[in-house]
Amino acid sequence: MQLLTPSGRRVTAATERESAMEAHVADVDMADLLAMYTDMVIVRRLDEEATALQRQGELGLWAPLRGQEAAQVGSARALAPDDMAFPSYREHGVAYCRGVDPVAVLSLFRGVTHGGWDPTEHGFALYAIVVGSQTLHATGYAMGVSRDGGGCATIAYFGDGASSQGDVSEAFGWAAVFGAPVVFFCQNNQYAISEPTIRQSRVPLCQRAAGYGFPGVRVDGNDVLATLAATRWALARARAGEGPTLLEAVTYRMGAHTTADDPTRYRDSDEVASWAERDPLARLRAYLAAQGTLDGAAEAGIAARADEFAADLRRRCLALPDPAPLSMFDHVHVDESGHVAAERADLAELLAAEDDPPPTAPEPSPAVLPASSPRAVSSPSAAAPPSAASSPPPAAPSSPAPSPGSSAPGSPLAVGLVPAGRPVAAPPPQSPGPEASCPR
Ligand SMILES: Cc1ncc(C[n+]2csc(CCOP(=O)(O)OP(=O)(O)O)c2C)c(N)n1
Ligand SMILES: [Mg+2]
Questions:
Q1: Which residues of the chain have pLDDT under 70?
Q2: How close is the Cα of 424 to the center of ligand 2, in Å?
Q3: Which structural domain, as residue segments, surrounds residue 202?
Q4: Can you give the pTM of this predicted structure?
Q5: Any signal peptide, and if so, which residues (predicted)?
């Protein structure tokens, strides 16, 4: 389904089912569309800033979403506050719309938390790195909602590549048989890292739903209005007890899979250029401008707001505290198990020993240290990421340098590695990371 063409022309639904979906956006006025456009601009800016931060060694990794703003903002804006979303690792736009502080998302990629936010506070689960696993979590959650009397819906975000996972097949099967109130929202961004969708399926992914006994719909994922309409329709089905729906949002990952990937190795520039013509922001901008809702001054205002947002994000990212080493055990289980307690005690003992080295151990001169023989240590303070004081100023964002394939020196990925023989300082006492405030 498409309601806004790539050139920004409003079209009407083509089939009866699409008309039913379109009815779900009958109340959407120009102010609503402008608000969604603003969301998309800010989310794109968030993505650019995070990519720049990674290139500057301030994040260990980043998974860019450029190109997928409409799929994410359109679907997330369809959710009610009580609904629950289960994301993969690329849903920064959904996180933003669910009210998750973007710096919490960055904290995960900076390696200073294992979680980042309270899922129940935002109706937004933690990121799932195990591809497809979140579809099972969503289905289980949705089945629980049904047993509790229903009323809210669940949405699971996953990719075209994830659709090949056994977990997704199991989630579809369970959701269908139990009529679970879940929307399976597949962002078909054309690639699973370097693997094109054609290598995942010989039929459109939406058609897979038929084999499980629930509807599957293909929607233009670069069209925010169509995405909003289809998602509202699918969520309404879920809330009405009509069971699951598969939405395939057809979109394109304009950037790399992650900052550790080089997409020029597996796709050509013509393909990227052809998708750039279908840019989700450009078509909405064109429509808003044609309707007289967006002029140059309004556009400049939104851009200034996005720049301010990015500068604040950068400032707060650089100020994120390193977590206390023992905090890694805090949220393994609700009630700490014996073996976790033992591991915590072991690490505490090791840290205490490092704090108090034997007086006979002479300190080797750094000049004679073999620089290329790292060893793992347990204290992140040994090779902490650059502090705010030593970091580049939070001025205008830099364009990401085209240097795929590795994270920069000083990246949090390097935490825990110090040259052999170099003394390891004990960490100063620190307050727990942001996740420690989670009541669960
Ligand atoms: C179970 C599992 N297998 C493999 C991986 C490695 N991996 C990470 S992302 C990815 C590709 C996923 O592609 P897709 O589902 O299309 O999502 P996208 O990254 O395009 O958003 C793979 C194979 C993983 N994280 N988990
Ligand atoms: Mg994909």
A1: 357-440
A2: 42
A3: 16-318
A4: 0.82
A5: none
